[in-house]
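User: structure tokens for this one?
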Amino acid sequence: MTNMTILCLKSLSFLTIFTIFVLVIPDLSEATTLLDYLNSIVDIFSHCNLIIKITTKHIKLIPPHPVLIYLDDLQVPINHSEKFLFENVSFVRRLQIPKFCWTYIFPDMGANFRLSNLLNSPIFPPPSLSSYPIHLIWMVSGNQEKADEEMEKISEKVLSSKIYYLGSREFYFAQPSFKSVMHFYHLNLYYRQRTFVPGAFKKFGIITCDPKFTWECYKSIENATDKVALAFNKFSWVYSKWLNYEEDGVYTFNKKFIKMHKKHFQYIRNPDWMQVANESESLEEFMAYAILQEGLYNVTLSVKIYKKENFFFYGKIRMRYSPKHHQIVLVGSQSYSFLSCYGIKRENSYSVFANPFDMFIWGCILIVVFIFTLISVLVTQDCLVNLKMTIVTVAVVLEISINTRVVPSQIKYYFWLWIFSAMILTAFYKTIFTTEVILPYKRTPLWKHIYDLEEQGFQFLLPLKPDLQLAYDAYSKGTTVDSFYAFEFAQDIYDVAAYPGNFSRLVGYKKVANALVDGYPQNGGKTGNEVIPIWKELHYKLPFDLYSNLSRCEEKLAYLDKKENIKNIIPFLNDNKDGAVFMEGADGDFLLKQYGIQIDSTPRKNFVVNRMKFFMVLGIYKWWEDWFRMTRPNKLFPYYANWTRPKVGALERLDFGSKFTTTLKIWGICCGFCGVVGIMELAYEQWDYLRRVVKHASQIMTENS
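Assistant:
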């Protein structure tokens, strides 16, 4: 025997040993047969992580591959909270075989075990931890009668458990046979749903293979198991909202589902999905029909649904952020934001004249003007000519007719190049200027994030749960709600308020959450009775309360809601003749929640997960999501106000008056400047004329004298 390390686990502790267990059996040939029989199974599953569980030390083992030996009879009750034994062990996939799996072999356990121990023993991966195949193999007698009796006892125990507790575990019974072949009996875990697929599968599927061809034998076992899962898994799922609760673990289908099943699915393989969508109450209900449709065709519904025999599909739910959950299909996220009209400043109306060009272009224009003026100064030495040269250079940009005689002949060709460049610049300027004039003002709020509001002392308006009738009745009567949980995000606010870290943004959110919770009598232990609440409740069914409160833009008020709701409410609020402009905050992760299809149990060939991935990859889910959003919009303030589109014209809201008033002011200033310059030119001409007259008169007098 070559040196081999065998790990022996007793009382959940590892011991490294280099020895052989001794099997006390009178007949040596029987011991040799048992050993060969066990080694053949080990050979077939040698690429898996192998664990051999024995109930006695008196057994002779010479395994041909590395294995873990676990000594336990699974009879003594165990603590179900114990962690998976190999949770902190890093398993490296072997290079020769791409398939990763767990294999547990029970040579001598038989039916003498506790079911709870078999499900919760720390040697097995928890159902929600491993998506890899987990094979549990019992070695049974070669005598068929004894083998059948033993398999029935074991299967009776296994099938009495809830199916979603089994995860990806598959149960096999290995039986030696003559002619160098081995029989593996696979337990059909869906045998309780056998009425759905008549006669196609039995309780025990038999796989016969030659153990000499280990990989072919393993593939035969896997293919047979996959075939059973593909045939039955689709029938074992049920959508939770199709059911009525009867008693512990027992449900019945509700009347609406029975009607929908009979009308669209029982005798129709390809239903009219548009009609199904119109009759579905929500996207989640419709997607449940779409995902589970294959399991509804040509099926007679059971009178009662037993939870232990079925997997429950809950549709889109909030992610639980557990590292053990890996069967996840993300479908979206949700966060909260706010809107307000307080402290929103619009840009200076005079800036519209400077906006077409940036600072670099304006600087280049001034440099060109300075260069031409400097050249004129160096060439002519005449102040009046230099001034005219400056005016002519600027006039080119303003598209004013000029007299090029003032341009020195030395730079005339350069000046024509400037004229051509100025024509292009002016064309661009006029185009951009016209666009800027007809666009709304750019507005900048004094706040950006929700924690800025808390620091500035804002009051918050919060929407009550729309489907909570008691909250609506209390609000309509003017009564303050008596539970903070009347708001959908109440629990999330408490969670954020308890944030223990020091990340700056999240600390800011924590301050907001604490400010919302403080001042509320039932605020989770905080002493807030002496603090005035910083929030006030609203209800979607009374939409005018929202605008009447928020339109007081001189007061520090903000409305807090889901981000998607904020985007739908802002156009409704901005459709006003008062000139009030509402803007949204910039937070993208305040009370952020991820939603997805999340399944804890990990059955082989998970029909729901595979189907959902198919819908997501092909864009089918996104198409129907948009369809439901368009045909079934959320009933928010605009819905109850019968608002469907803006009633105030776009031109009325653009505030053209101030921009054109500013334009007229600048035009007036330019006219006044031109008038002053004209007067100065006339005065200069008159002064120059008088100077020349006086000079001429003095010359005449000199000549006469």
